[in-house]
Each structure stands twice: as structure tokens, then as C-alpha cells.
Amino acid sequence: MAFLEFIRLDERSVIEYVKGVPELKLKLKLELDDDKKVTVKEIGDGNLNFVFLVSNSGASLIIKQSLPYIRCIGESWPLTKDRAYFEAMALEEQGRLTPHHVPQLYHFDPTMSLIAMRYLQPPHIILRKGLIAGIQYPLLARHIAHFMANNLFFTSLLFHSTLDHKRQVAKFCGNAALCRHTEQVVFSDPYQISEYNHWTSPYLDPDAEALRQDNLLKLEIALLKSKFSEQAQALIHGDLHTSSVMVTPQSTQVIDPEFAFYGPMGFDVGAFLGNLMLAFFAQDGLVDQPDDRKAYKEWILQTIEDTWNLFYNNFVALWDEHRNGAGEAYLPAIYNNPEVQLLAQKRYMTELFHDSVGFGAAKMIRRIVGVVHVEDFESITDSVKRATCERKALNLAKMLLKDRRKFESIAEIVSAIRQF
Ligand code: ADP
Ligand code: SR1
Ligand code: MG
Ligand code: MG
């Protein structure tokens, strides 16, 4: 079979596909007719795409295919399959900047809207599942801080000339349909009546209604929506929640950058921190006694604090190191004394902190009243318990969205979380 036009792959046709691509055959150590031992399993548990694990006596790889709609909704919600192209480009760029934290891209096929990449083998699991199981990851904060600081710094105007920056922005601006999707499900639908919204009803009915009546909240979400749509600050992953990270205690791998584009840095930092906050609030619902996960909740809070602080330190260190490079945001001739340099960094990092808190809060809200929720809460079977956990997370998120500028440090955010 030649695969000259797009067809949806299944567990059988994937083998035919792989046999037709020399570099994949080589990866799988496939000789001419030696495909009898090849096994294929569709392992996709994400919301959008189909993911096949292909193995041949010890060698494995992943094939991820995008169909022209959203997998978890169905054909009634079309979405361009060009997203595979942006995922391939982002994997390449992130792989160049942070090779230890991204699966290697083996192959991209624009006709078939698919990518092939390294299989992250067990014991790697999706971080969200690890958080639900109560597993601690001692290197997580350090690794994610490194991933975010390097990818965000080296794709920003702090490192690029304005000409280079615009060239890079242009490469990703075609991912507009996925941005538009985010605009709808993160910044619009939770604040209006939408056929897609749902929540733990009837318990959260008044909470969902209150969101739609909260004028201050609406003003703040509008500011963030503008920033998301207008600010080409850096190449962001665009969907950096805890199901986009695979982990072992020693390894942290970021997957699934199909939403990548040049957007505000805080959207990535906030996505990660906000999803850790959701994991924190789910803990009491996941166990019989609230105190059963006391130590684990402390570890999550510490990870929130460490992630931001390490990110801050890494990012500022990169800035200091490259201060006299090609970056044109702060020209050395103008920002020519330690005092103004320090002031510039403080202002930049404070705005990034407030953006991260705001975007993180918006991401929390969408996962409680929007179209697709998170397994952290969905695996709480008792709906009264689930609603109680969700309400705490929702109330924290509303407060953070409205009052984010009052916070000066991540330690203050962690103190606020403890009060809910
Ligand atoms: P979606 O875009 O649909 O969310 P993901 O890229 O998140 O798809 O992948 C869905 C699932 O497939 C992940 O949750 C993970 O279990 C598995 N997966 C994806 N990429 C890999 C990989 N490189 N190695 C191992 N498993 C993977
Ligand atoms: C229908 S919303 C599906 C969501 O899953 C992806 O991971 C993105 O977050 C998207 O918004
Ligand atoms: Mg995913
Ligand atoms: Mg995805």
C-alpha cells in the first residue's frame, strides 16, 4: 500500500505504513518480509489524536496520527489535521533546545498527518496518573523548570533579533485553528452558556452560574485572552498540563506540543502550575480520610514553589549569560548599568509571574466547568466529595484570576492555596 493520500490508520495498516518508510523499518530492525513478530497497539488516551505503539522484538516506536476532528468529541467537532505539522516542528525545536526532556522525532508525513517518535518506555507514565496515585517525583520541578526556561528564553526577543523573531513567529502562525480552539474552550465557553460545558451537577450549578455573573472575572479573562491572541513572546508548548508530561523518578519528558505557537510565556508556566493545583485539590477526594495524603499534598505544594523558583533562577541566569548577545529586547547600549538591568529583569519577571498565575487560574476553571475535565477529579467517584474538591479549586482560581497582581511571590500563592 502506497499511502499517497490521507487514510485513517488502524492497527493493521500501521504495519503496512511502517514497512514503507525506510527509516522506521530501520528503527524497528525490520528485514524484508520479517513483519510476523510486529505488534501494534492503539494506546491513545489523550483528547485529540490516535497513538500507536509499534514493536518488533525489543525495538519500539510511536506513531501518532491526527484525524480531521477531535477524538474525544467525534466528527461533530472538526479540527484541522495540520496540527501534526506543528507538533513535528515544535518537537524538533524543543528537542534542539532541551534534548533530555523531549522524545526524539523520527519522521513526519504531511499527507498522512502523522509523526513517528521515540517510545518513552515504562516505567514512564503520564504525570497526571502519577499524581493521582500519590507518587513523588524528586526531579520534576528541576526538569520542568529547565524545559520551560530554555524553550521560552531561547525563542524570545531576549535572545533573538527582531528579524529572526518575526521569521520564527511566521513559521508557527499557521497554527491559528488550534489557538482559536483554546480561545474558545479556555477564555470564552466557561464564562457563557455553551452546549459543551458541564460540571458536577447539581452541586456546582450555582458556582457555574456565578462565573457567568462575575463582572470582574470577565474583565480579567478578557485581558488574558487578548494577551494569548496578541503577544508573540516565545515559542510556547500551548498545552503544558500534567497529561503532556511523562515521568519516572529520574526522567521528565514533555510530549504533545501540537498547540505550539508564539504566544505568552505565562500560558505554559501557568498551565503546569495550575494543573498541579488541580492535583492538590483532588487529593482529599482520592482517599478515604483527608489526612491520608497529607505528606503528598505538602510535596505538591513544594513542587509548585520549586518549579516557579527554579524556572525564575534558570531564566534569569540565561538572560545574564546572553545579555550582550543578539537579543534586541534590551539593547546593551541602552540598558548599560546594573541598576537599570536589575529593574528591567524585575519588571519582566513580575509580569511573567502575574501572567502565569492568571493563565494557570484560567486553566483550572476550564477543567471544572468547561468541555473536557481532568482525571484527577473525574476519578473521584463520590460526586459530593468531587464537587467539594472542585469548588475549592474553583474558588482559589477565581481569586487568583482577579487578585493575581497582589501576589509578590510563589510562597504567597502557596499560602493562599492552604487557606482554601
Ligand atoms: P493527544 O494529542 O491526543 O492528547 P498525546 O500526545 O497526549 O495525544 O498522547 C496520548 C497518549 O499516548 C499519552 O497519554 C501517552 O500515554 C501515549 N504517548 C504519546 N506519546 C508517547 C511516547 N512518545 N511514548 C510513550 N507513550 C506515548
Ligand atoms: C475539546 S477540548 C480538548 C482539550 O484537550 C487538549 O489537551 C487541549 O487542552 C484541548 O483544549
Ligand atoms: Mg495529550
Ligand atoms: Mg494533544
UniProtKB/TrEMBL annotation:
<protein>
    <recommendedName>
        <fullName>S-methyl-5-thioribose kinase</fullName>
        <ecNumber>2.7.1.100</ecNumber>
    </recommendedName>
</protein>
<dbReference type="Pfam" id="PF01636">
    <property type="entry name" value="APH"/>
</dbReference>
<keyword id="KW-0808">Transferase</keyword>
<keyword id="KW-0418">Kinase</keyword>
<keyword id="KW-0547">Nucleotide-binding</keyword>
<comment type="subunit">
    <text>Homodimer.</text>
</comment>
<keyword id="KW-0067">ATP-binding</keyword>
<dbReference type="GO" id="GO:0046522">
    <property type="term" value="F:S-methyl-5-thioribose kinase activity"/>
</dbReference>
<dbReference type="GO" id="GO:0009086">
    <property type="term" value="P:methionine biosynthetic process"/>
</dbReference>
<feature type="domain" description="Aminoglycoside phosphotransferase">
    <location>
        <begin position="175"/>
        <end position="277"/>
    </location>
</feature>
<dbReference type="InterPro" id="IPR011009">
    <property type="entry name" value="Kinase-like_dom_sf"/>
</dbReference>
<dbReference type="InterPro" id="IPR002575">
    <property type="entry name" value="Aminoglycoside_PTrfase"/>
</dbReference>
<dbReference type="InterPro" id="IPR009212">
    <property type="entry name" value="Methylthioribose_kinase"/>
</dbReference>
<comment type="similarity">
    <text>Belongs to the methylthioribose kinase family.</text>
</comment>
<dbReference type="GO" id="GO:0005524">
    <property type="term" value="F:ATP binding"/>
</dbReference>
